[in-house]
Design brief:
The chain is α/β, with parallel strands linked by helices. Helices cover about 40% and strands about 15% of the residues. The protein has 14 helices and 13 strands.
């Protein structure tokens, strides 16, 4: 009999349920005390000075760009292999997306390609680079920060997947001017939807705090604590309604209390995958550079079919893509959920049409789009579930 193995399963417990009820009992449902506590805990966890909760990582990225003054006429470097939200956030500001290919080993932005793009930016229109810490592995943020300082641009980390990721003890999201995180259900901890922006810059934090609340000079919570709380605040900026609810904040607080255990559990499962799949030459398992800690938001392999994927032609990619898709179909028939890693932005209709891209303009991103495969991963994955996944993979690939 087939088992049902989801791509992810959150371990909600009584603590989560109890916290969700507290805003309902207090009557404070909008951005309030639980959001503030969630922000405080996230600062403590990442080492950032300031944290501002938002409706999603996408809106956090949008606020980061606006707070840094990026808009029409500017350009922002974004990896082509990432969820479309990264590029979309740049589009919201009227700035132009400059796509960059990735490193095949890490799935993250290729720093040498970033260097080339910056050297060829004769009009100096590039104002920021947005490295994505994909699947829970930090990009080469040390080199990216050095390049940003050399060329006078900002670093905005899309760390949607980056909870638990670090480089030599420094948490993802803290290398640039701003780091942005997601609490979507596919992420390590979740508030259903939701995001967080972190920064060490007090001016950015203050700006974002206002912008997420329609541009209000003072938040509802601050007004509530103020003697003159019956008066509406001033609105000095055109802002947005990007506020997290206190219901989400309450769930976030409960999730943060067990975040380290969740990350540890996911890491243990990932380690078992590494050991069990190491002998299968048709799958390339995740690579982790020395000094990096992988948060394992996802466990993503490349289906290589046993071929050298460093020299892939379009013909080979198409062939291997058919084989990967067949593998995913067969696993699905056995009740095992899989996903492609993410997509190559330049192949998506909107960006392909706007910039007239061809699929091999960013060949590594295209290959990863067509050949990546995400395996089920959650912190409390049982031995029976894990062995069922491995048995079905090895039967088809060994």
């Amino acid at each position: 009999m087939n088992m049902k193995i989801p791509i992810i399963r959150h371990s909600f417990d009584e603590a989560d349920r109890e916290n969700l009820l507290k805003p309902l009992e207090s009557g404070w449902l909008v951005q309030g005390p639980y959001v503030a506590e969630f922000e405080r805990m996230f600062c403590q966890f990442t080492g950032a000075k300031y944290a501002k909760a938002t409706t999603s990582c996408t809106t956090a990225l949008h606020l980061a760009l606006v707070a840094l003054g990026i808009g029409p006429g500017d350009k922002v470097i974004v990896p082509s292999f990432t969820y479309v939200a990264s590029a979309n956030a740049v589009e919201y500001t009227g700035a132009e997306v400059v796509l960059c290919d990735i490193d095949l080993r890490t799935y993250n932005i290729d720093v040498e390609r970033v260097r080339d793009i910056l050297e060829n930016d004769k009009g100096r229109r590039i104002k920021a680079v947005m490295p994505v810490n994909l699947f829970g592995l930090s990009a080469d943020l040390v080199t990216i920060k050095e390049l940003a300082e050399e060329y006078g641009i900002a670093v905005i980390e899309d760390s949607a997947c980056g909870i638990g990721a670090s480089i030599r003890g420094k948490h993802s999201g803290t290398f640039g001017a701003v780091g942005c995180f997601s609490f979507h259900p596919r992420k390590v901890i979740t508030t259903g939807e939701g995001g967080m922006l972190i920064t060490d810059d007090e001016n950015i934090a203050s700006k974002v705090s206002s912008l997420r609340d329609h541009g209000a000079e003072k938040s509802d919570l601050a007004r509530h604590k103020d003697k003159s709380g019956s008066l509406l605040p001033d609105f000095n900026d055109r802002g947005y309604n990007y506020r997290m609810t206190d219901i989400q904040g309450a769930l976030g607080v409960a999730q943060m209390r067990k975040a380290e255990n969740i990350i540890k559990g996911r890491g243990l499962v990932a380690g078992r995958y590494n050991e069990s799949l190491a002998g299968i030459d048709k799958l390339n398992i995740p690579y982790v550079p020395e000094g990096y800690i992988h948060g394992f938001q996802s466990y993503v392999c490349i289906y290589s079919g046993g071929e050298d994927i460093n020299n892939l032609t379009m013909e080979k990619i198409v062939k291997l893509n058919r084989e990967r898709n067949l593998l995913m179909e067969k696993l699905e028939e056995k009740g095992i959920s899989t996903r492609q890693g993410t997509h190559a932005v330049h192949t998506l209709g909107y960006y392909k049409k706007k910039f007239v891209f061809s699929e091999m303009d960013y060949p590594v991103s295209f290959a990863c789009d067509r050949l990546s495969i995400t395996l089920p991963l959650y912190s409390d994955m049982s031995d029976e579930e894990f062995n069922y996944v491995i048995t079905n993979i090895t039967e088809r690939l060994a």
